[in-house]
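Narrative summary of target 7.
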Amino acid sequence: MPFGYIGQNQTKQKVKNSGVLSSFEVSHLEKQGHAGGSLELISTTTISSSTTNINLTSLQESKYSVHQITYDLRWGSGVNNEYLALRVSNDGGSSFENSGYSNAIQYCGVTNSFGSIYGASETEFQDIAYGDAGDYIQGYIYLYNLGDSSKYSFTSSHSSPTYESAGAWTYFGGGVYTTAETINAIRLFAKGSSGGFDDGTVKLFGVKQLWVTLD
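Modeled conformation, tokenized:
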């Protein structure tokens, strides 16, 4: 498909690739995976038995400045009011950092319940999603700057409503890992000691960036 300059649309237009794309052209490029914002699947992790930690060690962090994680997980039978949390690694997943996180999370639930969870110098990105034994949790997490050793790594997240014995709850917010270094592995885990995940799927995507040089 040809892509044309729509500034004047004259047959003798002299401007070469000066770069205004129509909405149709942008949509076409995104569907082909060429435009900024397109998601490229890096890995799929399937949980089929009791698991406490889910390690993502193939981030392709030098290729992507933005990553997205989607999760669809079921808490195990031993779980009692558990939270989903996240830690980062700078050594490919041999170890995961347990300090230097700051978080700001809001939640809302049944009976007009609203609140916030926040803190500096935490041990993880905490309280991304919430549930009880047998509950499914779904949502997404965006991660920024993982491959840039000169910048902090940031997250934003949102969980879809999860129903447990007290009703439905959803969590949204974000955080920052306050050390500037290259992050090359991620761990999702059950915060607490009562159990982990019995089944589900975690998908890791890179968000394609589009850089245009104008002549």
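The chain has a mean pLDDT of 85.
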